[in-house]
Amino acid sequence: MRIGYACLTYGNITSNFKTITKKTLTVENLLKVIDHNLNALEEIIDYNIENNLDLFRITSDLIPFGSSSLNVIEWDKIFGERFHDISLKILDSGIRVSMHPGQYSVLNSPREEVLTNTIDDLKYHEKVLNLLGTDNSSKIVLHIGGVYGDKKSSIDRFIENYNKLENAIMDRVIIENDDKSYTIEDVMHISSKAGIPVVFDNLHHKVNNCGGSDLLWIDEARKTWLKEDGVQKIHYSQQDTKKSKGAHSFTIDLGEFKEYMHLNFRGSLDVMLEVKDKNLSAIKVSNFVRSSNINKLEVEWSRYKYNILEKSPKNYNSIRQLLKAKEQYPIIEFYNLIDISLSLESTIGNQINAIEHVWGYFKDIATEEEKKKYFGLIAKFKEGRNTSNGIKKFLKELAFKYERDYLMNSYYFSI
DNA sequence: TGACGTCAAGATCCG
DNA sequence: CGGATCTTGACGTCA
Fold it and tell me: Are residues A132 and A246 in the same domain?
């Protein structure tokens, strides 16, 4: 089983993707932002390789106005070499990338103009995957679209429009059940007529339910994946219990995931997680499915420990105890304690405790000026005249200045 | 007409 | 001036 996440990283990656609005849309700005975004993509690919994350959905915002005539530059040619550099990393690592056009691309729209825009958008997505040198197992995920008061003819129109797409796009499009209009049964029906691979989404099925177990539908959907399409892919997410039906949870609850995976799926599965904490959950689930070495948890502990310390010294100690049993792999308990702790409110006292632990790395090597700044900030914080953000930012600067690897990889400064 | 879901940009406000 | 906090946005469908 391979694990991945969508579009963005949460936490410790320095550069995120930038966007452009119509008002600031100039050639100069486009060149700048595309350059930035390709660097960000490369950084994320590197990160995914380091962390053994096998699947990744590339954001549709990679190229601003990528499918619009407002973008007048030949970005595919101008940045051809950059795409090539990244493609080598993707191909070499075997990471499976994919894309997912947004809600405004609707292949079954009765409006001519919407259809034209959708086809342009699909061309854009295909171009990116092509520039990245991927084969046809790198997919473009689509929902079916609107119902327009007549599901049957809307389904027919989807199939008709799909069949008019150019081959290179048809070979990449796969279809997914959504949480409002088209159930997995509808999508399977379309697949049987048009020969399109089907992505089963568990939360959408839960919200827009047509009967049948997840196991049944995943096994049915498996049959729609041919050899050249690659391993069957599913989307997996959990309900945020505090939000509306269908809202993704902040993080993946491993116990719940474990139970789901006990369904005994028949073949290999690629699992795309849809979750707010993105890469963090992907690492968590990946450690569950592919490892039983406690070193993996120790690496995770090094990243989370100061976050836990500032939330709950009690849980901090519990986790330390848990990790002492070197021959075991208490992964569920480990992440449960992490997740529970992160959801707590931290007290001023606990925050100061964590700050002082981190300051311990620098107290002997900091310059007089740095010491002065630190004691000034901490005094102000104790009086409640600022938040811990400023102190954390300063400590992060010190971590990078003095190259303390342990801290540089910590989530303490970023989540 | 707003909700839908999402996050960066841009605007505004505050010390 | 820098940081914190808001509002807005290229695109569509549905109630």
Answer: yes
In the three-class reduction of DSSP (H, G, I as helix; E, B as strand; rest coil), residue A161 is classed as helix
Domain boundary among A258, A290, A322: A290
- What percent of chain A is modeled with pLDDT above 90? 83
Q: Which of A268, A222, A278 is nearest to A248 (CA)?
A: A278
Residue A345 has pLDDT above 90, yes or no: no
Mean pLDDT across the stretch A7-22? 84
Structure tokens at A154: 């809307």
A119-130 residue pLDDT tens: 999 999 999 999
Is A253 in the same domain as A317? no
Least confident of A13-17, A238-242, A331-335: A13-17
Q: Which of residues 116-175 of A touch strand B (CB under 7 A)?
A: none
Phi then psi dihedrals of residue A241, to 5 deg:
-65, -20
The H-or-E segment that residue A5 falls in is strand A2-6
Q: Residue A268 to residues A232, A256, A397, A403: CA-CA distances in angstroms?
A: 7, 20, 44, 41
Give A221-280 pLDDT, tens digit per residue.
999 999 999 999 999 999 998 888 898 999 999 999 999 998 877 789 999 999 999 999
- Dist CA A67 CA A117 (whole Å): 8
- The residue range of the domain holding A373 is 294-408
Task: Show which positions of strand B are touched by protein (CB under 7 A).
Answer: 4-10
Identify the CATH number of the domain in which residue A116 sits: 3.20.20.150
Whether residues A58 and A170 share a domain: the answer is yes
Which nucleotide does the CA of A36 lie closest to, via C1'?
Answer: B8
Q: Is the CB of A65 within 7 Å of strand C? A: yes
Whether the beta carbon of A295 falls within 7 A of nucleic chain B: the reply is no
**Residue A414 within a domain:** no
- A242, part of any domain: yes
Find out whether A337 and A345 touch, Cβ atoms under 8 Å.
Answer: no
Helices A254-261, A331-342: inter-axial angle, 10-degree rounding: 140
- A268 and A362 in a single domain? The answer is no
Flag whether pLDDT at A384 surpasses 80: no
Structure tokens at A104: 């405004």
Nearest nucleotide to A66, CA against C1' atoms: C10
A104 CB neighbours strand C below 7 A: yes
CA of A293 to C1' of C12 (A): 48
